[in-house]
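quick q for whoever's on today - can somebody do inverse folding on this one?? i tried earlier but teh output was garbage lol. tokens:
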């Protein structure tokens, strides 16, 4: 089966679909972080955090930079978190006009 844009979009959404991954993405929005910093944020062991980062990297959400023994991660496309504003509008039950204003921000 040929990979479609829907398949690629689904991969990105699945990579975001975990509370720990969302917390890491929000932390990375503030700047580059090492795995140990992200581990402190989500409270999981290093191997679990590394697995989450691997999933997000495979989906194209994050990229890494190695410095000696340290691996630092950053958002590859920071605007992906603007999507969360639209999700919050749905969660909060905002009216259509308000939700459109949130989701159309640059």
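ok took a stab at it. sequence:
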């Amino acid at each position: 089966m040929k990979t479609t844009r829907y398949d690629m979009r689904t991969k990105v959404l699945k990579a975001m679909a975990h509370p720990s991954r969302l917390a890491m993405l929000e932390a990375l929005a503030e700047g580059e972080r090492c795995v140990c910093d992200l581990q402190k944020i989500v409270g999981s062991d290093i191997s679990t955090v590394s697995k989450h980062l691997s999933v997000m990297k495979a989906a194209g959400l994050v990229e890494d930079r190695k410095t000696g023994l340290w691996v630092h991660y950053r958002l590859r496309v920071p605007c992906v978190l603007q999507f969360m504003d639209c999700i919050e509008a749905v969660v909060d039950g905002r009216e259509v006009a308000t939700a459109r204003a949130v989701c159309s921000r640059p």
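fwiw Residues 40 and 46 are 9 Å apart (CA to CA). also The beta strands are 33-34, 62-67, 70-75. so keep that in mind when u check it
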